[in-house]
């Protein structure tokens, strides 16, 4: 073993790698401890420099190496002075290190077989060439480890145990989509099998109307497939939902049998009040079990649910109600979030009043009494319109006939932000969505019947539709539904829940990972987390350092991370690791799911092969794709299919490395991704300009340490209005009231004028540079109508 010397090492940190200036030879990986944290020592980068892994693995104590001093100089350079105190060859811990395969062994044994089988990757992706890898569970994922291989044990039990298996299945899915997806669809219950062709599509705007259809003519019901079918196959007494309330100790659960009964009661009630197939139902609920129950009840009777995230304001809710015109709105009186109480019914009341004033009155507001947050008697009430859930729904029978619907009948509408102020009603249909969410869930999380699955997303977003409700329940999974806040009562809550329910698959957003990371490792290490076997990430690119923390600390270097790239529009995962098959690269979503053909195009819409960067598009349809924007097929065609004719355009930028791995780089349109939530800059701008003292506003996204992106607003005030702190607060409040707290600007930057071209177009590029203080990268400002505006903005930057 190397490093058997007692030396001082001067290590210069040039983020992200540490280099030693020493040239001592080293042959195999070994480990050292700095301040009792374990670090890996890896092979030298060059003969002059050595690199040192800088990620703590565990807090195991060892006296093998000790750090003698540690100090930081200015800027990015950290100097570490390490004294290797002693080195005992017969140390038992040392034996365990020595018995690990050396780098050489890694590259020549079974791992090389993985690598060689990747000779041909999908979509011109290239091949894996780097072998600088570690094995899951045996070592750290560090800056140096480009590839993190699944362990042999993990792969052996996985649905897709090797890249070769993936490639075989992927090839089949692309060469014969009809056959591939029909085989899978046959595993579900269809009252009547679909006709021919299995799918038909036109994604090329030059050839006429955009159309996507899968399994048309097939009659089915997604609620039946989630519940009745699983009960018939013997899962009736299996837990379907574990519910964990805001307060620790507040919990509940439902078996598949009980869930079906609850769904049927609500379905019967909805039918009784006149809700029919095709009618819209708006659901504005927090993460109570009643939320998935309401979604499933709508699906059972063929009604189209539209869940509105219960963090949206009354105005946003009203806007959605007026767009889809529901027969009924389902809500609850209040909810506790951390130590706060949010009076949801008051928000609904305001939204319904607004909608009624604008010509659309909702007949029924079904209200669940959430007694842990607010008593019935204290809830404001409109007789005739409002009904207590507990008073009526429980009186209905616990069985309810299924409404068989066509595979292409709508299942739900979900509003999402676009580049105009008006949200888009993304419409998903039944059959393709069902087959796609179930299949993606099974493979990307390598789901097994004994798993306990927890996704921290709210059902108000697509992740809560596809991967809290439909995908898992279609697989007869046991799902944890959490109502509270992940940092309440403290930052260890997630891991407390993981231990309590023995969660084995944990799926969350990078923003949560980053915020917990800041709170310190002890909140994590306090809990066992032994049950975890797979971690998941969604909503935005996961930065490699958050990936490593998630992987090394939360997952104890044992759980693969499925970094799933997808969108409200795609219905399910599009680019995702298959955890048993792929070596992972921290921060990369890896490769396309079966049936998905991602392409990267340049600004002219020309496909780029191999290693490249550009706009991420998709060629050909997949079963889970959205079919239209509700009531606005033209907007569907122009937003998604016109920029690059022949393709679906995702709105995201992407690069592909020489090994074919996909790296998502964020939105390229006027959409900001704040904590994994999509917010259109135009929505925030229109909220700001509705303030009587705001003349004009321009909003851009800036990097934010926890939220991924923050909202940065340039505001021009009405002539003569002075800048003030109160006005700043009042502008932020206007956005909170009009959209929701999650859309509140992080920064208001006073702007006497905005940088505009002579034709009046705001040059956001310049605003983005000012917002991120990259003042030396402003570029050419000479085409501006008034270039002096830029200097004024810079002068006011920190005011
Ligand atoms: C599922 C969801 C979609 C946008 C998407 C992209 C970003 C989602 C990501 C990711 C990088 C991932 N996004 N997952 N970026 N890596 N794994 O979040 O849907 O709310 O519609 O947002 O989120 O920018 O375009 P949605």
TrEMBL record:
<dbReference type="InterPro" id="IPR000873">
    <property type="entry name" value="AMP-dep_synth/lig_dom"/>
</dbReference>
<feature type="domain" description="AMP-dependent synthetase/ligase">
    <location>
        <begin position="234"/>
        <end position="621"/>
    </location>
</feature>
<feature type="domain" description="Acetyl-coenzyme A synthetase N-terminal">
    <location>
        <begin position="166"/>
        <end position="226"/>
    </location>
</feature>
<dbReference type="GO" id="GO:0005524">
    <property type="term" value="F:ATP binding"/>
</dbReference>
<dbReference type="Pfam" id="PF00501">
    <property type="entry name" value="AMP-binding"/>
</dbReference>
<dbReference type="Pfam" id="PF16177">
    <property type="entry name" value="ACAS_N"/>
</dbReference>
<dbReference type="GO" id="GO:0003987">
    <property type="term" value="F:acetate-CoA ligase activity"/>
</dbReference>
<dbReference type="InterPro" id="IPR032387">
    <property type="entry name" value="ACAS_N"/>
</dbReference>
<keyword id="KW-0547">Nucleotide-binding</keyword>
<dbReference type="InterPro" id="IPR045851">
    <property type="entry name" value="AMP-bd_C_sf"/>
</dbReference>
<comment type="similarity">
    <text>Belongs to the ATP-dependent AMP-binding enzyme family.</text>
</comment>
<dbReference type="InterPro" id="IPR042099">
    <property type="entry name" value="ANL_N_sf"/>
</dbReference>
<keyword id="KW-0067">ATP-binding</keyword>
<dbReference type="InterPro" id="IPR011904">
    <property type="entry name" value="Ac_CoA_lig"/>
</dbReference>
<protein>
    <recommendedName>
        <fullName>acetate--CoA ligase</fullName>
        <ecNumber>6.2.1.1</ecNumber>
    </recommendedName>
</protein>
<comment type="pathway">
    <text>Phytoalexin biosynthesis; 3,4',5-trihydroxystilbene biosynthesis; 3,4',5-trihydroxystilbene from trans-4-coumarate: step 1/2.</text>
</comment>
<dbReference type="GO" id="GO:0016208">
    <property type="term" value="F:AMP binding"/>
</dbReference>
<keyword id="KW-0436">Ligase</keyword>
<dbReference type="InterPro" id="IPR025110">
    <property type="entry name" value="AMP-bd_C"/>
</dbReference>
<dbReference type="Pfam" id="PF13193">
    <property type="entry name" value="AMP-binding_C"/>
</dbReference>
<keyword id="KW-0587">Phenylpropanoid metabolism</keyword>
<dbReference type="InterPro" id="IPR020845">
    <property type="entry name" value="AMP-binding_CS"/>
</dbReference>
<dbReference type="GO" id="GO:0009698">
    <property type="term" value="P:phenylpropanoid metabolic process"/>
</dbReference>
<feature type="domain" description="AMP-binding enzyme C-terminal">
    <location>
        <begin position="683"/>
        <end position="761"/>
    </location>
</feature>
<dbReference type="GO" id="GO:0019427">
    <property type="term" value="P:acetyl-CoA biosynthetic process from acetate"/>
</dbReference>
């Amino acid at each position: 073993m190397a490093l058997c010397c007692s030396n001082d090492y001067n290590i210069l940190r040039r983020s992200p790698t540490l280099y030693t200036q020493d040239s001592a030879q080293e042959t195999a990986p070994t480990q050292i401890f700095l301040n009792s944290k374990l670090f890996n020592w890896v092979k030298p980068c060059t003969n002059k420099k050595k690199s040192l892994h800088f990620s703590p693995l565990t807090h195991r104590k060892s006296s093998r190496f000790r750090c003698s001093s540690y100090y930081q100089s200015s800027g990015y350079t950290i100097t570490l002075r390490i004294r290797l105190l002693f080195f005992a060859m017969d140390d038992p811990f040392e034996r365990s290190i020595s018995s690990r395969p050396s780098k050489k062994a890694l590259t020549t044994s079974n791992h090389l077989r993985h690598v060689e089988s990747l000779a041909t990757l999908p979509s011109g992706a290239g091949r894996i060439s780097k072998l600088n890898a570690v094995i899951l569970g045996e070592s750290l994922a560090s800056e140096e480890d480009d590839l993190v291989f699944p362990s042999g044990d993990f792969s052996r039990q996985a649905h897709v145990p090797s890249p070769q298996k993936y490639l075989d299945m992927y090839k089949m899915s692309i060469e014969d989509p009809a056959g591939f997806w029909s085989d899978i669809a046959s595993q579900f219950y269809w009252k009547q099998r679909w006709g021919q062709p299995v799918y038909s599509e036109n994604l090329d705007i030059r050839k006429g109307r955009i159309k996507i259809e899968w399994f048309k003519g097939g009659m089915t019901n997604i609620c039946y497939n989630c519940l009745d079918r699983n009960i018939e196959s013997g899962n009736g007494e299996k837990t379907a939902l574990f519910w964990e309330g805001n307060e620790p100790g507040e919990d509940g659960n439902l078996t598949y049998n009980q869930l079906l009964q609850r769904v049927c009661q609500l379905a019967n009630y909805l039918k009784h009040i006149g809700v029919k197939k095709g009618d819209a139902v708006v659901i504005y609920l927090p993460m109570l079990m009643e939320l998935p129950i309401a979604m499933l009840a709508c699906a059972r009777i063929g009604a189209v649910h539209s869940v509105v995230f219960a963090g949206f304001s009354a105005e946003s809710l009203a806007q959605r109600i007026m767009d889809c015109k529901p027969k009924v709105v389902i809500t609850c009186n209040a909810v506790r979030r951390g130590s706060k109480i949010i009076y949801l019914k008051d928000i609904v009341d305001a939204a319904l009043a607004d909608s009624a004033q604008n010509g659309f009155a909702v007949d029924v507001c079904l209200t669940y009494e959430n007694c842990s947050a607010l008593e019935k008697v204290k809830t404001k009430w409109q007789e005739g319109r409002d009904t207590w859930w507990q008073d009526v729904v429980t009186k209905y029978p616990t069985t309810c006939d299924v409404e068989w619907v066509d595979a292409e009948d709508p299942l739900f509408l979900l509003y999402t932000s676009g580049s105009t102020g008006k949200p888009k009603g993304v419409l998903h249909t039944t059959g393709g969505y069902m087959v796609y969410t179930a299949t993606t869930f099974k493979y990307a999380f390598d789901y097994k019947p004994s798993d306990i699955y927890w996704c921290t997303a709210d059902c108000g977003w697509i992740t809560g539709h596809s991967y809290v409700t439909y995908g898992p329940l279609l697989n007869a999974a046991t799902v944890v539904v959490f109502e509270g806040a992940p940092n309440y009562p403290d930052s260890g809550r997630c891991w407390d829940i993981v231990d309590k329910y023995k969660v084995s698959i944990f799926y969350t957003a990078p923003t949560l990972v980053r915020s917990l990371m800041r709170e310190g490792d002890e909140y994590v290490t306090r809990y066992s987390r032994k049950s975890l076997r797979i971690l998941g990430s969604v909503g935005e690119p996961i930065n490699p350092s958050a990936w490593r923390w998630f992987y090394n600390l939360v997952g104890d270097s044992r759980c693969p991370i499925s970094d799933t790239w997808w969108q409200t529009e795609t219905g399910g995962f599009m680019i995702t690791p298959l955890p048993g098959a792929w070596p992972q690269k921290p921060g990369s979503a890896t490769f396309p799911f079966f049936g998905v053909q991602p392409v990267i195009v340049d600004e002219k819409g020309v496909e780029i092969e191999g290693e490249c960067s550009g706009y991420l598009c998709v060629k050909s349809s997949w079963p889970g794709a959205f079919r239209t924007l509700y009531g606005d097929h033209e907007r569907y065609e122009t937003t998604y299919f016109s920029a690059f004719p022949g393709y679906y355009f995702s709105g995201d930028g992407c690069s592909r490395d020489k090994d074919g791995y996909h790296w998502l780089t964020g939105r390229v349109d006027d959409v900001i991704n704040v904590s994994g939530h999509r917010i259109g800059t135009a929505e925030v701008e229109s909220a700001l300009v509705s303030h009587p003292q705001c003349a004009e506003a321009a909003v851009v996204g800036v990097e934010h340490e926890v939220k991924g992106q923050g909202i940065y607003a340039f505001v021009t005030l009405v002539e003569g209005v002075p800048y003030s702190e109160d006005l700043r607060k009042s502008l932020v409040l206007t956005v909170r009231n009009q959209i929701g707290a999650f859309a509140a600007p992080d920064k208001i930057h006073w702007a006497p004028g905005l940088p505009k071209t002579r034709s009046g177009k705001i040059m956001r590029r310049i605003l983005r540079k000012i917002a991120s203080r990259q003042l030396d990268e402003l570029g050419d400002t000479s085409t501006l109508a008034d270039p002096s505006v830029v200097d004024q903005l810079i002068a006011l930057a920190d005011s």
